[in-house]
């Protein structure tokens, strides 16, 4: 119950600190018989990897995964898949300045209060480096569900907002630019903006949108484990996320029911999709789409005043190699968590009828 | 895993259909020794009850709870608390029109697909009537945490939005009007608007904001079970919810890190609270606040075209007694779910240190 | 986690104290589409009911079950099945003598220490009356698995031991006598013995054997949730149980591997079945069989000395209407718990392969 | 739910196959602040290690553990402890003979049926090699509970049975002989017997007894998660275990209640302890003691006939390096599982009272 497990049947438990020996996890409940594409797994890790472009952190981590178990002759065996990503580039000295003081809007203070002390190196367990394990697990979940297509992309950076329906976007262009925005023009603007922010030593927030197509009807467990509730939790569990909305979302509150309702076609599909592919917590076969809000990264490379363990004021400065904007690298993480939810709920749905 | 349980240590499992014999649940894991205030429990049920004002559904349900177990001489015993709310006003005939057809943006269609058939009376299990059990459990959770003060209120109805910080509101006025908006002037506007919407036979969405004060430092289980992730799931599990944001939320994405960070005071409190009382998924002792978006109720009292089980087009009309706007009655539900999360995480936090 | 839930996918949570208003539970995860035979459910309750013969407690409880939800037009809907057995014959005065003192080998003392106080009436939550809810749930689990045949029977009472292989017994005779021993001669001896014990105001232990036939191959989740491990936990969770063995059991320790191994037939069945139908924690299609040891009931109708809450010695006497030997009435409980395990593991096994 | 996790709050998930790259696991929920004694952890692994004496398998595995996370400056941090034991001596060729045939009384056949195929090398996931991870986790659990003293020992090998109360044994002698029987005379007999069995190419079963002293009052979660039920499941989850009994066990069934009851002393202790330290599923502060029955190892180094995947009869012969009797090496495993249950239930008990 200590919170390091996600999923009920397709269960992922992760371990690892930012600057420890290794991060990794165990996937328990992955069905047997899935032929794994290891290159595809690595490709997902590469999308999340630091140092991949000029607008992300310049740390260098190969982020290659070692599998220990649960795979035999290239296929999943149904037994737990243990894996690790070994840390190779641990510049602990970068973080000595936070050993005894608390960075604002980080988890330093609350970890100390909750656990009595903390591994302060690079944020320890609270670092977004933990998500490397999620990406591995999500890549396997994707391979369990080959029909489902999940695409996340950056739809907003600061005030720069992509005001188009996802249906008017060309997802094949997502990976064509470092921002991971499928609109090239907007992507270019966002990239320039992030570079300017970086130059200031500052950071900026953003929004990731995600669309899952070909999700079968019937995923979702009422009443508490509604599909969108689990998706929401999955997204909110990602570092720096402040909000989640699906379908009509916060905009939907201003609509009248007569305008908001999605009329049926004869085949059970709906003419509109303000429901966002989920009704009563259960997938209805339409596209699932949602938005995830990320705050600006808390580490700014500017001087600031904060407190130490004894409550004394100290002056310090952000150091290290950090992302000026987290959303480009968070795209594969959003996809991974989406895949984990869908894999889990696919297994759950196998048990609904006699 | 069928989704009817919420919480890990303070665990609530609910049962019941809209028009079945009874709804109810079991609270397992409630600590022993809590002297229960039964009037306070009933008061919460009354806040959620149909028929309480002109802007809510006019169904008449006494919604009184019968406790079966887990309480002895007025105190919780540490054993499971079984309870039921008996249905007394089951107008099944109101719903005969949906027996063989699917209402748009309801769960009728997906339940049939998922389970093979459904209890169609009043929406069956997918009805928001299920939340009556949550309110009972939440009322007990509140009593387990007497120091924590949870206040939810309506902050938006349609386009009518309360643009004030919660700190400038007088929570004692929330219950002074049927909308449950603490600003009397805005409340009056909202009430008029809902009445007009009702007259049209239409419905409208809204936002509920919630503030939890005096939450101790250290609640929240990284990495997947972050406090705000569980709060988000709790809210998204409520019928008609489309979005959740906490702290700076979706607005926060437009901010720079230097402006968004919450500087510390010497005592560990922060000068600002864009974090919304949670950092790294763990409560930091500041106020927790969040917004919950509700779509307009799908049942509109107007004629519409839809399909039947065989995909034939049918013309039908919304019937029954429904809420034109769900947020006034959802206020106690939001509070209840908040209390359940905080009770559960309070128990979890007892096990962090040796 | 407070221990009142059994199962992972076919999940039963029970509530209720011996002398409270009602006992009952929620079955969550029962698949939809099972046509329930309510008479068969009541028949199981009748097998467990007090007052059914001269060798069991003479309390009178109708033990009829009220279903609240999860059933529509006679079939399970896939939503939670809430139910209650209302207490109608609460002779609380029978138990006033234990309000302030602790009965030896009962749970009175530990409940007080664990929870701070207790519902002392009839043992409260620690009473075997709780198992009435298990029998309801087990009866539904049996109906989910119509091919599997589960038969439990009394194989030992005190020193009177049925030294026959279960294969030489006629299970149709189990219900032909009040002891529920399928060997009529031994049954008669056991019955006389129990009557004699009862006359003494004393109690005696016994063993229940159970056989499950037609269990499909592949139930069981290695490594911790082996099928027999879960069966063992299920049995050990029944009041008064002190031991569990399956297959060759404790006798098997004296055998050599060459003699203990079960050779295969060409069709995958085995020539012998010392494995007890489970290999490596997974069912192999052979009969599953096991023994469950029950201690003598702790309540003896004789004077004895014990202590009160303050540690003072007090003299008291067993009162009330108690079973001189628990095993005849525990037969349906053993079957119910077996059915619950098999139903749960049947659902789990649906998710093993892609 | 795939069965590779044990515990609810002190949760251990293991991974690894007999001849895979590594075995290991994640301990999630270990409280922060425990100063770990790494030598003590290795010492437990050494007690379980192959090759430690002439009566156990002669495989050579160093079995040293690498910790990846959750430990900082020698202390647990409250975050998940990831660890691996790397396989260094993988003689896969030893097992080629079982690639296409099924060894009797092993898990080969059921794994193939359940998962479609299997990692056949050394039994894959069904090998007792998996328990190496349990020993690591159990060693840490022991260190979390320094007051509790857990001692397991061999009390029976074949027909050679130690007929003494555990109170008359000197636990300091357990490690003085390779059998791990605290009675030197009986230990010598057992050792000779196992050597003779080994010479025959055969195997023999045995019983391990275990005693836990200084367990505080109040551990155990009624009704399904009784302390002894969880202990029973823990033991039954160990490879080759066929039975579990605690306190008076199977012997207790022959006793009368008047003789079986444990009378109280004024301080709440009991004059006798037939309850085995647990009443109503909750520890009462007396010694907890139980017996665990192990069948003879299925791999006998003799020729035998079995079937292949297509049901054809094949003649084959046991190969490899196997234990003639599993109990000497299983002693630390029994202790580890006991420690895991007690650690988990210690955390659970922190949440019982307000």
Structural write-up:
Chains A, B, C, D: Homotetramer. The structure is a homotetramer of 354-residue chains. With 354 residues, chain A is α+β, with helices and mostly antiparallel strands. Chain A has one domain (5-349): Chorismate synthase AroC (Chorismate synthase, AroC fold, 4-Layer Sandwich). Chain A is 24% helix and 21% strand. Chain A has helices at 38-48, 108-115, 131-144, 184-199, 227-236, 257-260, 327-349, and strands spanning 5-6, 11-15, 22-28, 65-67, 71-72, 75-76, 81-86, 101-102, 149-157, 160-161, 206-213, 241-246, 278-279, 282-283, 288-294, 303-308, 313-317. Chain A has a five-stranded antiparallel sheet, covered by helices on one side. The first copy, chain A, has a five-stranded antiparallel sheet with strand order 10-9-11-15-12. In chain A, α3 crosses α7. The radius of gyration of chain A is 21 Å and the shape is globular. The mean pLDDT of chain A is 95. Chains in contact: A-B, A-C, A-D, B-C, B-D, C-D. The interface between A and B is large, with 110 and 110 residues.
């Amino acid at each position: 119950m200590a919170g390091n497990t996600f999923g009920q049947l397709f269960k992922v438990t992760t371990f690892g600190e930012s600057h420890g020996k290794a991060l990794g996890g165990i996937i328990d409940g992955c069905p047997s018989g899935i032929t794994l594409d290891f290159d595809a797994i690595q490709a997902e890790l590469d999308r999340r990897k630091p140092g991949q472009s000029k607008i992300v952190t310049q740390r260098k981590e190969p982020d290659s995964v070692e599998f220990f178990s649960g795979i035999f002759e290239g296929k999943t065996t149904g037994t737990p898949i243990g894996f690790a990503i070994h840390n190779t580039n641990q510049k602990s000295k970068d973080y000595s300045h936070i050993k005894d003081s608390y960075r604002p809007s980080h988890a330093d203070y609350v970890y100390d209060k909750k656990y009595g002390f903390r591994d302060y190196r690079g944020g320890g367990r609270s670092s977004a480096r933990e998500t490397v394990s999620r990406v591995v697990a999500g890549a396997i979940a994707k391979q369990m569900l080959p029909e489902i297509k999940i695409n996340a992309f950056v739809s907003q950076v600061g005030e720069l907002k992509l005001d188009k329906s996802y249906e008017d976007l060309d997802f094949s262009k997502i990976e064509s630019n470092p921002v991971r925005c499928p609109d090239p023009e907007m992507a270019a603007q966002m990239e320039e903006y992030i570079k300017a922010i970086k130059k200031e030593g500052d950071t900026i927030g953003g929004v990731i949108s995600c669309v899952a197509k070909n999700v079968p009807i019937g995923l979702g467990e009422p009443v508490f484990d509604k599909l969108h509730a689990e998706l929401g939790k999955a997204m909110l569990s990602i570092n720096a996320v402040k909000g989640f909305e699906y379908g009509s979302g916060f905009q939907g509150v201003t609509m009248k029911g007569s305008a908001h309702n999605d009329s049926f076609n004869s085949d059970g599909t709906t003419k509109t999709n303000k429901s966002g592919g989920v009704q009563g917590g259960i997938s209805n076969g339409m596209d699932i789409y949602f938005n995830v809000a990320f705050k600006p990264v808390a580490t700014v490379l500017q001087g600031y005043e904060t407190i130490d363990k004894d409550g004394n004021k100290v002056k310090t400065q952000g150091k290290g190699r950090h992302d000026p904007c987290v959303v480009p690298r968070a795209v594969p993480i959003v996809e991974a968590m989406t895949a984990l939810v869908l894999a889990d709920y696919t297994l759950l749905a196998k048990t609904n009828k006699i």
